[in-house]
Task: structure prediction
Amino acid sequence: MRRWNGWGDETVTYPLPDGAKEFLEGKVGKAKRPRDASFDDVVRKVPKSNLTGHMMISCDAAERVRHARGQSLPDWLAMRTGTVDSFPDGVAHPSDDGEVQTLLAHAQQVGARVIPYGGGTSVVGHINPKTDGQPILTMHLDRMNALRDFDERSHLATFGAGVMGPDLEDALRSRGYTLGHYPQSFEYATLGGWVATRSSGQESAKYGRIEQLFAGGKVWTPRGMLELPPFPASAAGPDLREMVLGSEGRMGVITEATVRVQPRPEREWFRAVFFPEWSDAFAAAREIAQERLGYAMMRVSTPIETETMLALAGHKRLANALAWVLSLRGATDKKCMMLLGFVGDHATVSLARRGALAIARAHDGIHVGRLVGEQWIKSRFRAPYLRNTLWDAGFAIDTLETATTWDRVPNMVEGIENALRHGLDDDNQKVHVFTHLSHVYASGSSVYTTYVFRLADDPEVTLARWRKLKDAASKAIVEQRGTISHQHGVGTDHIPYLSAEKGELGMGALEAVMKYWDPSGMMNPGKLF
Ligand SMILES: Cc1cc2nc3c(=O)[nH]c(=O)nc-3n(C[C@H](O)[C@H](O)[C@H](O)COP(=O)(O)OP(=O)(O)OC[C@H]3O[C@@H](n4cnc5c(N)ncnc54)[C@H](O)[C@@H]3O)c2cc1C
Result:
């Protein structure tokens, strides 16, 4: 069973490795777990529904709690402490396009707002009901999850948009294919959610972001159904898929998506390379990206992130042995880890990895063999479970991300980290901050920062701390002219910073386009703009 107030399956845990709690307490101070509300406590808070009387809509209080929040830090805080203050009035699980159409017509008739719901893994407030007095219907697409068509000749697969990552890959694997889209939330996020939020998978350098993978599909809007044929390319005016990508539920319900798939790779090669200093790692990353060596993944951690990852990963004896070997080669307390992944046929992978390692060596990179890289790929979807354990130990952990051009990346890292590190100085609270370059391009990079601070006994105090940090870091992003999101989307949390990159005209155009599809504003109001 999926956790209702945390990440993932209830039976999966990620115990804190020896010394990890002490490591974090050394950074932010002693922490204490606040009191958790029980599921029953929260169910008792659910108000009477304003959406009764339709056989496809459940108004069950437990169901409404399970669809009330996503995975952002404020969402966790609301659910864990029982301070959640808005719920959908009803939840529907349509099983085909006809039922989606029926539900949209019903919502229109009774003046309800509709929130399309994929896997509920949003980290920016996308699926949270916003109360404006009208009833709220959450439409969960989980029953629309089948492979509808597989066109091997064209390398295209069409799925119901509610399919989750593992089911989608299973269906393709049995045919020898893959989509290769692996966001860290892969286990629960859905194809429709990926399209609606413009998501990016860990191997996007090989397979492409969802924008490149999404070939076409169907969207049911309040005005009717928009069908997007999967042309390989087209010069017939602006591409209508671009309106759907990143539409965040405001345009309509994506019921079907056709994606570009590839034969499964013969080989996957993931390795770690350590550098004595950040400047070496940074220069190597840029050079590897600009040589266009065909890597699937490259992520480069700052010294603080490298130290933190090694402390939280466990395997203390292995980490000590690694530190000793690296110190002999001159990589000590400022060392930085680069993770490199190559996938494809044997010959291409061999050639590309040799090229990348040669560049890394020229920047004093030390290739440490297979263990670290293989361990990372094996446990890449387990890492989010650590968030449950850290919360139980009294620590709040959150991430934020942006992307910018190479000339701005160093200032961006420094600006975000400083904003966060000193964001709670006035409250006498320390913040542990660390960063990696997570998706590296020829023209620049995404910057992904994680921050840890202490939970307070009072949820309002924790929320106020988070607001201060989020605002300070988002302003730093805007100041350095980065995008407010490289992959998580806008939701509610990024709205105040969006106009800085879109401009007044851009915001006006965006709102006008969404209004065209949804004249009465019934689709997921309060998100995106
Ligand atoms: C631990 C963790 C790790 C993450 N890692 C990544 C990562 O590596 N890369 C990344 O890009 N993101 C990541 N995310 C963010 C999140 O997983 C993505 O935004 C994901 O694309 C959301 O998909 P979902 O199906 O859960 O959508 P939901 O959270 O259910 O919905 C998100 C938005 O999409 C809309 N939507 C969903 N389905 C449909 C549909 N069928 N039709 C119309 N609108 C729809 C919703 O209305 C909402 O506005 C992570 C989140 C977590 C919690």
Observations:
- Residues 7, 70-71, 115-123, 126-127, 141, 161, 183-185, 189-190, 192-194, 196-197, 199-200, 248-249, 253-254, 384, 487-489, 524, 527 surround flavin-adenine dinucleotide (CB under 6 Å).
